[in-house]
Amino acid sequence: MRTQDFYLFVEGIVITISGLYLLYEAIKKALYNETSSYLDISIYVMIISLVITISLVIYLNSVAKKTNSMVIKADALHYKTDVLSNLAVLCSLILVHFTSIEIFDVIIGVIIAFYIIYSAFSIIKKGVLVLLDASIDDDLVLKIEDILKNDPNLSNFHLLKTREAANKTFVEAHIVFNTQQITLIEAHKICDHIEDSIKLIDKNRNWIVNIHLDPYDDYLKDEM
């Protein structure tokens, strides 16, 4: 799991470097007044590359939606930045071809470079948070809390913990029943209902729910 999480972080760094390199090339072209060459051939090559990359992005997004894998999402973003880069290059080549104004290439390159760097930041942030065992999004935590608070069989709950690793979402909680006169079968049914309710929050996530059963409130004991 940690290998995939680290890969996610590295993927973000690689995308950032790609953006910085594109920015460097754009600035260098502006400073040294470099001109574009082989425009006709370059335009055809970029069109073919663009079609192939777009197809790959569509496929990866489809797989990522089904698996909720952050690694695949990172790959999809990586290729999405390639699409934007190729599209920018294609647009600039066409503009330069018809106008002979080289500054178009520089301006578009700078814009796309900053977009790539900005997009990569979210991937890096996600990778760091996962590596640090950070909690899942606050809105998801609130929905889990609502499920526990609104269950008529519970008096309260404590030690709710959440985290993400690779494509799995882990949830742990201690629940306190509102009666000590409860059978194991009844307790098991209640836990199954809570677990199913949590999984319905987001069906695309691979939920791993672990619930600890308490016949009475032992919050202070569990905290020690």
Automatic annotation (TrEMBL):
<keyword id="KW-0813">Transport</keyword>
<comment type="similarity">
    <text>Belongs to the cation diffusion facilitator (CDF) transporter (TC 2.A.4) family.</text>
</comment>
<dbReference type="GO" id="GO:0015093">
    <property type="term" value="F:ferrous iron transmembrane transporter activity"/>
</dbReference>
<dbReference type="InterPro" id="IPR027470">
    <property type="entry name" value="Cation_efflux_CTD"/>
</dbReference>
<protein>
    <submittedName>
        <fullName>Uncharacterized protein</fullName>
    </submittedName>
</protein>
<dbReference type="InterPro" id="IPR058533">
    <property type="entry name" value="Cation_efflux_TM"/>
</dbReference>
<dbReference type="GO" id="GO:0005886">
    <property type="term" value="C:plasma membrane"/>
</dbReference>
<dbReference type="GO" id="GO:0015086">
    <property type="term" value="F:cadmium ion transmembrane transporter activity"/>
</dbReference>
<dbReference type="InterPro" id="IPR036837">
    <property type="entry name" value="Cation_efflux_CTD_sf"/>
</dbReference>
<keyword id="KW-1133">Transmembrane helix</keyword>
<feature type="transmembrane region" description="Helical">
    <location>
        <begin position="44"/>
        <end position="62"/>
    </location>
</feature>
<feature type="domain" description="Cation efflux protein transmembrane">
    <location>
        <begin position="2"/>
        <end position="132"/>
    </location>
</feature>
<dbReference type="GO" id="GO:0006882">
    <property type="term" value="P:intracellular zinc ion homeostasis"/>
</dbReference>
<dbReference type="Pfam" id="PF01545">
    <property type="entry name" value="Cation_efflux"/>
</dbReference>
<feature type="transmembrane region" description="Helical">
    <location>
        <begin position="106"/>
        <end position="124"/>
    </location>
</feature>
<keyword id="KW-0472">Membrane</keyword>
<feature type="domain" description="Cation efflux protein cytoplasmic">
    <location>
        <begin position="137"/>
        <end position="216"/>
    </location>
</feature>
<feature type="transmembrane region" description="Helical">
    <location>
        <begin position="83"/>
        <end position="100"/>
    </location>
</feature>
<dbReference type="GO" id="GO:0015341">
    <property type="term" value="F:zinc efflux antiporter activity"/>
</dbReference>
<dbReference type="InterPro" id="IPR050291">
    <property type="entry name" value="CDF_Transporter"/>
</dbReference>
<dbReference type="InterPro" id="IPR027469">
    <property type="entry name" value="Cation_efflux_TMD_sf"/>
</dbReference>
<dbReference type="InterPro" id="IPR002524">
    <property type="entry name" value="Cation_efflux"/>
</dbReference>
<feature type="transmembrane region" description="Helical">
    <location>
        <begin position="7"/>
        <end position="24"/>
    </location>
</feature>
<dbReference type="Pfam" id="PF16916">
    <property type="entry name" value="ZT_dimer"/>
</dbReference>
<keyword id="KW-0812">Transmembrane</keyword>
